[in-house]
């Protein structure tokens, strides 16, 4: 990825004024792009998209490469399904039998994705295939289908604590990150991106915030890279800590859903803990996703009325109901609709309602596995070298704060939660 | 993704023509998920077809 680096922590006017970023790096993500907001088109919501649009292959061969990339994702997903049943059977009776039984499919999927990433990078074809690695689309489709496996009364029961947790957590983590970013001298726009991504939902929130504050493109790239850097180890670390801390499945799901930044990583980590944790983690994450619109409106207002006039600008989009709707994650509506439909269907007159629901669950697993392999396939370490230590420090401190406050809220709000 | 120059002094370039209509990834995932669920419930995707 060719990225010029004025340093994310530099003052925006200095970086821009120097004219050092005359290419795509020197451009802001305009509100009209929806900066990849939910309406941002098929390339809008993926974190990698913000970084890789310029690198994406174009021309007559592009559809062929995309088709090949899709085949890679499907092949890795099929290999994951094979391994999740073959490995425990092969290890049965051996000293590793218990461990092999405990390893859930997201682990295979992400590891295979990372391995595929390495092989494709060595072959020099990874970037050409990358447009097929649609983590956001795959995870959102999987989450809509996940709605069909969550009874609506579970959603209704979890909604109260999930909303409370989201409000407290998003507010406190956002303000803490903003404060730490200020102490370390980060530019206001980068602070907004980091605070949004840590407190809400990773890359999607960063993209929405980038549109709201007209952040520079490289700031979004840094933030997206940091989100992925912290999310991938968290997928494995949090389920381990859940066991160490002895959390219930509901508390584990709430903690995971409130802490890991990207929705796909939340689903992967929740699935490692178990089905019930996956359900609560998804509900909590979906609730946080909804707050993305509110934060985008508040950020837009703050930068329009405070920051832009101070910088002598004023071209920032004014917030309104339209902005709120644009940033609203529509897949949450699909998740709720699927849950209502499945609840009604299971109580309806169909002769064997469970058969259709089982098919939907199998489809859900395929989409989730494909999304998890895409996490591995999309992972790029190289761009992080360009980030500098200050954004990484801010992100790390904010993550620790998020873990602590999120743990407290999950334990308190989901104490006694019963499925 | 279209881009907007941030440097105030720079000459604004004409915005590239945007497609008249396009579906966002969020909506695409929602529609795909619900359609697949409907097909599964109605038996159009037969049980056992998806491993």
UniProtKB/TrEMBL annotation, chain A:
InterPro entries: UPF0324_pro
Residue span of region Disordered: 1-58
Main subcellular location: membrane
Record flagged with keyword Amino-acid biosynthesis: no
Record keywords: Cell membrane, Membrane, Transmembrane, Transmembrane helix
Pfam families xref list: Cons_hypoth698 (PF03601)
Ranges annotated as biased composition (Gly residues): 37-47
Subcellular location per the Swiss-Prot or TrEMBL entry: Cell membrane
TM regions (residue ranges): 64-83, 103-125, 137-156, 162-180, 192-213, 219-242, 290-308, 328-345, 394-414
Bias kind Low complexity: ranges: 15-36
Membrane topology value: Multi-pass membrane protein
Protein origin, superkingdom: Bacteria
UniProt family annotation: Belongs to the UPF0324 family.
Annotated protein name in UniProt: Sulfate exporter family transporter
Organism this protein belongs to: Streptomonospora nanhaiensis
TrEMBL record, chain B:
Record carries keyword Transmembrane helix: yes
Protein name as annotated: Uncharacterized protein
Keywords: Membrane, Transmembrane, Transmembrane helix
Domain of life, source organism: Bacteria
Transmembrane regions listed in the UniProt entry: 27-50
Region Disordered, annotated ranges: 1-21
Compositionally biased intervals (Low complexity): 1-10
């Amino acid at each position: 990825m060719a990225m010029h680096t004025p340093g994310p922590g530099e003052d925006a006017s200095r970086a821009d004024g120097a004219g050092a970023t005359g290419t795509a790096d020197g451009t802001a993500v305009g509100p009209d792009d929806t900066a990849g907001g939910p309406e941002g088109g098929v390339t809008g919501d993926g974190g990698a998209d913000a970084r890789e649009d310029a690198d994406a292959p174009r021309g007559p061969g592009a559809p062929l490469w995309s088709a090949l990339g899709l085949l890679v994702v499907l092949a890795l997903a099929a290999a994951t399904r094979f391994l999740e049943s073959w490995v425990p059977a092969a290890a049965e009776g051996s000293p590793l039998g218990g461990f092999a039984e405990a390893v859930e499919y997201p682990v295979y999927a992400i590891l295979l994705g990372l391995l595929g990433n390495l092989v494709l990078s060595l072959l020099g074809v990874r970037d050409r295939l990358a447009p097929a690695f649609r983590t956001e689309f795959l995870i959102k489709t999987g989450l809509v289908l996940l709605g069909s496996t969550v009874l609506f009364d579970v959603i209704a029961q979890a909604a109260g604590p999930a909303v409370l947790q989201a409000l407290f957590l998003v507010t406190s983590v956002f303000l803490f990150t903003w404060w730490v970013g200020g102490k370390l001298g980060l530019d206001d726009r980068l602070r907004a991106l980091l605070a949004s991504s840590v407190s809400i939902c990773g890359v999607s929130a960063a993209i929405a915030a980038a549109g709201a504050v007209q952040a520079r493109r490289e700031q979004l790239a840094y933030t997206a890279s940091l989100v992925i850097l912290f999310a991938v180890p968290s997928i494995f670390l949090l389920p381990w800590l859940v066991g160490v801390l002895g959390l219930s499945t509901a508390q584990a799901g709430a903690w995971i859903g409130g802490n890991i930044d990207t929705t796909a990583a939340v689903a992967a980590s929740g699935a490692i803990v178990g089905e019930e944790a996956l359900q609560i983690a998804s509900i909590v994450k979906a609730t946080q996703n909804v707050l993305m619109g509110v934060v985008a409106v508040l950020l837009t207002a703050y930068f329009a009325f405070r920051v832009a006039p101070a910088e002598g600008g004023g071209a920032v989009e004014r917030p309104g109901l339209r902005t709120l709707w644009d940033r609203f994650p529509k897949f949450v509506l699909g998740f709720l609709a699927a849950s209502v439909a499945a609840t009604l269907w299971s109580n309806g007159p169909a002769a064997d309602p469970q058969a259709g629901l089982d098919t939907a669950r199998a489809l859900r697993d395929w989409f989730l596995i494909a999304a998890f392999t895409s996490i591995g396939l999309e992972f790029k370490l190289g761009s992080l070298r360009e980030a500098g230590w200050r954004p990484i420090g801010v992100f790390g401190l904010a993550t620790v704060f998020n873990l602590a406050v999120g743990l407290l809220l999950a334990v308190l709000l989901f104490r006694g939660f019963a499925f | 993704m279209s881009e907007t120059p941030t440097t105030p002094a720079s000459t604004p370039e004409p915005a590239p023509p945007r497609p008249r209509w396009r579906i966002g990834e969020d909506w695409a995932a929602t529609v795909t998920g619900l359609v697949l669920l409907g097909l599964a419930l109605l038996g159009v995707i037969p049980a056992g077809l998806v491993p």
